[in-house]
Amino acid sequence: MNVVPSLDPASPRVRFGAELRRLREAAQLSQAAVAARLGRTQTQVSRLEKATRTPSKSDAERLDRLFGTPDGVSFTRLYQRIVAQPGAPVWFRSWVEEIEPTARILRSWDPLLIPGLLQTEAYARHLFGQAPQISLEEVEERVQARMQRGRILDRETPPLILVLIDPGVLCRRVGGAAVMREQLDHLLEIAQRPTVYIQVVDPVCLAGLLGAFMIAELPDGQPDAVHVDSSAAGQITTEHDTVSAIWKRYEAIRRWAYPESMSIEMIEEARRGWT
Fold this sequence. Notes:
This protein is an alpha/beta fold. The protein is 48% helix and 11% strand. The chain has helices at 12-26, 31-38, 42-49, 57-67, 75-83, 90-99, 121-129, 136-150, 168-171, 177-190, 240-254, 260-273, and strands at 105-110, 160-165, 196-200, 213-217, 225-228, 235-237. A hairpin with a 7-residue loop joins strand 4 and strand 5.
């Protein structure tokens, strides 16, 4: 089932899509005709109009050449406003704006931290605050962007979330005992939802030591997408060989996961230790 995210009508990405549709219809062009001029597929143009796809710089430039700038509308300027938005890094925006909100199933593994989608505000704020040479304003921008991501869990039809974590995550102090109690309480609460499954992985498992990643299963026959974390700029791709390799690693890690009921007991025990 295709899940349509809740979109901010004031966002430049929504404005980009709305103007594209308005000008296309005024010019009596089909989505297929515009797609041919952009070097895109009709589905990709449809997703641009629905604001479920982030436009590229070349998309904006080609649309300006196709339509001109009637009524002062410039797709290039709208694109610049999109990439200038604070919060997530530019390289990550295609994941949080286009992939994550439309995914049917999200699978994640993290050997070091609570996954971003499940982080509390205090936990995220402490993490971001540790970045070198970061300003308080930048910390708040990133915290709010992370909280915005988490809202997909509260949608009427949220994606299925399958989370694997290392037990060390439950014991790693982030922001002090109070922050950790709140964070683990949040995990326990959110694990009660029918669309969220959290499993702790036996520390004997070595297959996940190379780092965190996410796998997104997308609707309408679209290829799976993966986000592979790194300390600099992570990789986001639908390239078959990379996606296949991450799927194999996920399955290798999952084989070491404790049952969900046992995992919840482990989280509860770790929570009691944060006094």
